[in-house]
Amino acid sequence: MNILFIASEVESFVKTGGLADVAKALPLELKRAGHDVRIMIPGYSAITQREHGPIVNAGVLSTEPQYVDVPYDIRQLSLADIPLYLIENKHYFERPSLYGENNNAYADNGERFAFFSAAALQATEQLGFKPDIVHCNDWHTALVPMLLKTRFGQNPFFAQTKSVITIHNGAFQGICERGQLWALPEIRNSHNDAIYQGPYYINFLKCAVLYADKINAVSPTYAKELMSYLGGHGMAKHFQDRAEDICGIINGCDYNDWDPATDHLIPAQYHSDDLQGKTECKRQLQQRANLPVCDLPVFGMVCRLTEQKGIHYLLPILAKFLVHHVQVVIVGSGDPVLAQRLEAVAQQFPQKFVFINAHSNELAHLVEAGSDFFMMPSQFEPCGLNQMYSLAYGTLPIVRAVGGLKDTVTDYDQNPAQATGFVFEEPEPYDLLNVLLRALLLYVQDPQEFRRVQHNAMLTRYLWSDSVHSYEDMYRKALGWQ
User: Fold this and answer.
1) What is the pLDDT of residues 122-132, one digit of tens each?
2) Domain holding 377: CATH number?
3) Where are the beta strands (DSSP E) in 117-189?
4) Domain count across the chain
């Protein structure tokens, strides 16, 4: 198949979150499976290596007579042997950040990504790459499926092209004032009320859910949650109407970067049959965090400070948990109010709890390797990667039964023989406290059993080479090939 992968970020070039990891790993795996894959992303100024690639074409996005046509350049880079094209426009993408600054989104994000969506399809035709599948990702590219059936609907170049949208996080839907879509009158003036959010705003994600040929969520459980009123982020009815076209596929994990046997960001390597290196990692984590170096169980957490990550479940019970013989290390940045509350608890328990207000890849690796448990009490988690890293590092994940967390962690009480961690159900602080105490009891009362579960976890792998078959199957269904 010819596959055009359109995303707002790709790891190794520009990244703010897990979307970038998928936008790198999945195209590489599709290429290995024999498909012709091309990637398109915006030409941000943050892509430092972009000057190493040539401009291979240029174009103009035509608008209605009363508006100015929008020029762009197409620059080519490479991801391994996959062509990666940047759609460059200085007004839209020569900015300090991708989506916003100082915790505020850019006011014209709707206009920016509307332009990118249309220009990406136009550039594809200019480059002569006729895609069987256009694979879009999240709200930033969610206008593409609608454009394929409106602006480009009568274009013979795209006559056989089908579209797929992957929803990495349905809470972010791209809601913008209709006037920002001045360059796309077929959407701005659409009579399809289902794409509107009130009379004056258009919801980008609704456009994709209505017009894409297939809809993909990044875990089977999250696909089900999107169709529920609690988990649908206000769009449950839209997802329910497309239930036959929705599938959940668990993300793979890039173990090239996250393998304790080869990880050069941690002080000592180790593997499932020899955990001496993990003991050294724990010692150095305790030193780095200025905690007493001892055999107390360490509960780690690395996350953005947002309610989605369950910080508001942890804060009410954190002091109660810290009265036990434990140590807790949290690394993260984001909401300043949540940061202040964590810092206040850290001052109350300086020998037991450390909060490091930072975004650090090196610290993330050290916490994964040096902790005994890893906390992910998420309010919702479409797929999640840290629980997969934790499994590989023998750091038992403690997760809530949502999204990909439920699909990838087996609870000790529910299935002791196959257990890889601890799972709790209800979005309540005291349910989290109970599961933390369950984990603590196992560590203290039965070290041998703890090691057995740790061994189970380290043998667990979620590989892109497995997930890619499900993506190929979804593409074939979209194309009517099966």
Assistant:
1) 999 999 999 99
2) 3.40.50.2000
3) 133-137, 162-167, 175-177
4) 2
Asked if residue 265 is part of any domain, the answer here is no
Asked whether the beta carbons of 330 and 301 are under 8 A apart, the reply is yes
Instruction: Please tell me whether 15 is known to bind a ligand.
Output: yes
Note the pTM of the prediction, 2 decimals.
0.93
- Alpha-carbon distance 389 to 420, whole Å? 12
The C-alpha atoms of residue 48 and residue 56 are separated, in whole angstroms, by 18
129 and 237 in one domain? Answer: yes
Rounded Cα–Cα distance for residues 435 and 451 (Å): 18
Amino acid identity, residue 294?
C
> Domain containing 188: what range?
2-252+464-479
254 pLDDT above the threshold of 90:
no
- Name residue, tokens 């509960």: 299
Q: Are residues 244 and 198 part of one domain?
A: yes
DSSP class of residue 180 equals G
Residue position matching structure tokens 């380290």 = 458
**Residues constituting the chain:** 482
End-to-end CA distance of the chain: give it in Å, rounded.
Answer: 14
Same domain, 64 and 31: yes
With tokens 């992910």, the residue in question is 376
Angle, CA 85 vertex, CA 80 and CA 87 arms, to 5°: 155
> 3-state class of 250 per DSSP?
coil
